Amino acid sequence: MKILIKNVILGKRKVDILIEGEKISKIGKNLNLRADEKIDGKGEKAVIPGLINCHTHSAMILFRGLAEDLPLKDWLEKEIWPRESKLTEDDVYWGTKLAILEMIKSGTTTFNEMYWFEEAQIEAVKEMGIRANIGLVMLDFLPTGSKEKVEKLYLKFSHLATQPLGHLVTFSIAPHAIYTVSKENLIWAKNFAKRHKLLIHMHLSETEKEVKDCLKKYKMRPVEFLEKIGFLNKNCVFAHCVWLENKEIEILEKRGCSLVYNPTSNMKLASGVFPWKKIKGRKINVCLGTDGPASNNSLNLFSEMKIGAILQKIENKNPTVISAKEIFQMATKNGAKALRINAGEIKVGRLADLVLIDLNKIEMFPEYDLISNLVYSDAKNCVSDVICNGKILMREGKIEEEEKILKIANCRLQNANWKK
């Protein structure tokens, strides 16, 4: 399959881009080449890398608007976990498809997932054509979160890495957190991930209570505890990381871990503010994530970029503490580095994960600086076309089966017993 994109703005240049298979093969001017499909930007569309959402619980879109305005502990234990216990595999399948629909519409081509019924998620990803790292969840107090289940699932689906679908679906071990997974099981997860060359995706230091409980139980802070058990490595992707001290940041830098900034969720649950000022300038890869659409109410990474940048400016009382370019990089290049995918930049040889932005939309006027407009104007409504792995997922704002997905998801919501 060859796709030729004509007359699009890349940076400050007007270029043509040829996609062959799943990769970008040529970038230049006036490429008159044969292709199976052509998209003409007419000089009125810009091209950017597909956005990468590095921390999601996508099927929680089914809970959007439920259990609002609560602290994290009460939100989880009294509202979310009881409802999740009633979810079926079919619920998660349609919830994931609904979430993917929202992500594609807002320019996301890759997401880093952590949720139940992983088989249903894999099926939804295959059908929608988006790229996903599926976390095999570990949680001590549920059989569905056992190490036996994780091992069984991985062995069942590890063959995907040797098939064309392996370009879209990868796996990580996803122990929920240090307060829901035992020391013994964390060590098992670390060893299993090392043995199979997998990422580890985990919540870390999200709340002050998590830190206090860790100090009480282990006489050390969460990062220090993970360091002591030999858990930390370059394959670790840690979400939230709000309550970090300088010593912990130094350990994370030394071990090459990636951190995921989740500004909206952290604000809504009043968990705290990611310590960007302490981390900036260090050799730590910082990515961006929405968290689940129940604690964020959105999977829109453009909105997350805006909120994330503005939050850091007011928190540090310094408008220069973070730039639009820095936070845009978190949502693209840095996310690709964390998830170990050859994407996040528009270059020959990179994966063809591309988003076209309609420059005629009011949010893009005036055109002084594209990245500034994308970040601070919230460019979700400017996304016109989305390509992932060399396949067109959205064309001029339209996605195949969008109406069907919305209709079936709505029908399931009408009859859901977990709403009570």
Explained architecture:
The strands form 2 sheets. The chain has an 8-stranded parallel beta sheet with strand order 5-6-7-8-9-10-11-12, with helices on both faces. The protein has a 7-stranded mixed beta sheet with strand order 3-2-1-4-13-14-15, with no helix packed on it. 36% of the residues lie in helices and 23% in strands. It has helices at residues 72-84, 89-105, 118-128, 147-157, 183-196, 208-218, 222-228, 246-255, 263-268, 276-279, 301-315, 324-330, 333-339, 370-376, 402-414; strands spanning 2-10, 13-20, 23-28, 37-49, 51-56, 108-114, 131-138, 169-175, 199-204, 236-240, 258-261, 285-288, 354-358, 383-388, 391-394. Strand 7, helix 4 and strand 8 (169-175) form a beta-alpha-beta unit. The chain folds into 2 domains: 2-49 and 350-402, Urease, subunit C, domain 1 (Roll); 51-339, Alpha-Beta Barrel (TIM Barrel), CATH 3.20.20.140. The longest helix has 17 residues, at 89-105. The protein is α/β, with parallel strands linked by helices.
